[in-house]
Amino acid sequence: MSSVPAIRIRSGNSLPVRQDGDFVLYWMIASRRVTWNFALDRAVEWAEKLQKPLVILEALRCGYPWASERIHRFVLDGMAENACWLEGTDVLYYPYLEPEPNAGKGMLAALASRACVVVTDDFPCFFLPRMVASAARQVRVLIEVVDSNGLLPMRQAERAYPTAYAFRRFLQKELPRHLGEFPKANALLNAKLTKATVLPFEVLKRWPKVSPRLLNSGDRVLASISLDHEIPAVETRGGSTPAQVLLRDFLRNKFASYVEARNEPEENVTSELSPYLHFGHISVHQIFSELTTQEGWSPDHLALRTTGSRSGWWGASQNTEAFLDQVITWRELGFNCCQMRKDYDQFESLPAWALKTLRLHTRDERSYVYTLEKFERAKTHDPLWNAAQTQLLREGRIHNYLRMLWGKKILEWTRSPAKALEIIVELNNKYALDGRDPNSYSGIFWCLGRYDRPWGPERPVFGTVRYMSSENTARKFNVRGYIRKYSSPSYEGVTLGQ
Which of 171, 199, 203, 211 has the smallest number of Cβ neighbours within 10 A? Predict the structure, then answer.
């Protein structure tokens, strides 16, 4: 039946499809888009096969960790766009905005009681795996969980890979067979769907559908929701259209300088797509498709060797090789870790050599020691670090290269490596639009040795974990303009406590 590869579909429970249900339900929780989405493809297939209407539930709860206006606004932008895209189609789109924690409890089960089958997204990080597992126990119908995360299906790997080199060798062996397996650019185009009309009255009465007008009302919609109102929205808007605009601008105007300038803090040649990938507003399949089309690449260019080399395997330009290594190898390595290791966010998940050397140096004297509050306020002695933290506060992101330095310095200026990890996770997940993601956990843990090797000479605090300094960064790159731009740790509308 399915054009979705079987390896991307798993059953969340052992219940059957209910043939006499009223509709097929797609519970959209991670791939928050209506294009290039395997889960939507699967839901459409079920609706066509069963000749039932398709209902898409996209809910936004407010009781999740680090819930804030910043995160909510970005997700709501995408919901408003989905509502616009689906208006006038045969699909019934049901956006729900939880006003206070647990207000949405029971909604999925109530909808599922009328459904033939429930399809949802497979995402291996944050609270989503627990939420899906709990839902699968509560609903009384088959729930299918569909992986639309990367070019390589997550279940293709049978173990967690310790380094990018090892994972890259695996990718080079396994990925070619999946390069022809892409989701549909538009699953609703030419779909033969029964038109959905209305949802059960008792469901809508208890969990009212949020109106398009309210979704598009800007920050006003956030005022009455129970979440952190001290972390305001940023200028960056969420949704698939802004993501696609960024992608095309990157490919047309920045890509030619990618290798040369991507690590320069004062240059702006990175794609800036990580928040959109995190919230599912754009698919890596679309990114790959548009890049390879522009570059005139085809799978025939692939090298036959599987050496784990960072360059040469794709048989493409230097910029293409470098960008694909980031958006495929490094990004999907993070998904591999979260999929295979439930302790991916714990200090003890670091490699044995890193744990040993960090513990040996836990009692080393630190030149500076800062509290979470000092870090959060960008009140350290280091102007470059303060600038990076201020960019995070203002914009919800840090320049890619400086994000590594940012994490390394927290390790150096905190009383213990375990405490440093707590602070890095807290600041990243609280303020970064792309926090709470497998890829951002990769970056966080890389600062403490994950995916790396021992480096000499052995140093205080770091031991043999790779060392970085602001002084070396300033020698390698132009940073004066960056420091001037982000010289003030204050930003409008934010209170960081007393």
Answer: 211
